[in-house]
Amino acid sequence: MTTVIKIAVFMLGMYLSMRLIAAMYRVLDLWYTIRTAYPRVIRGILGWGGITTAIAVLLGDQWRHVFLWGLIVYGLFYLINFTSAKFVLGKPKRPIEID
User: Fold this and answer.
1) Could you write out the three-class secondary structure of the chain?
2) Among 61, 58, 60, 47, which Cα is nearest to 16's?
3) Which of 84, 87, 77, 83 lies closest to 18 in space, CA to CA?
4) Packing angle, helices 34-58 and 2-24, rounded to 10
């Protein structure tokens, strides 16, 4: 039973890490209307960050490290995918102009 709970807490950490990254992307997504959308952007970042912090604090010592590993694993997964995509795609090549 504890293995099932550990897997669930790990997955919760991964989910909240994903939501926190998505909330941080709201700045870029809503930049065109940031003058009117900044309360929603700040509320999203503080909301998901607060939920993540509250769960990490409220979990007992037995489950906290599993939750934090879920956060870290998804964060590393995201960074590796982001940097590898930039490496694979690279800069767009300019067409050769022939006179």
Assistant:
1) CHHHHHHHHHHHHHHHHHHHHHHHCHHHHCHHHHHHHHHHHHHHHHHHHHHHHHHHHHCCHHHHHHHHHHHHHHHHHHHHHHHHHHHHHCCCCCCCCCC
2) 47
3) 77
4) 160
pLDDT in tens, 63-89: 999 999 999 999 999 999 988 887 888
Q: What is the pLDDT of residue 92?
A: 67
Instruction: Tell me the whole-structure pTM to 2 decimals.
Output: 0.80
94 against 65, higher pLDDT? 65
Q: How far apart are CA 31 and CA 36, in angstroms?
A: 10
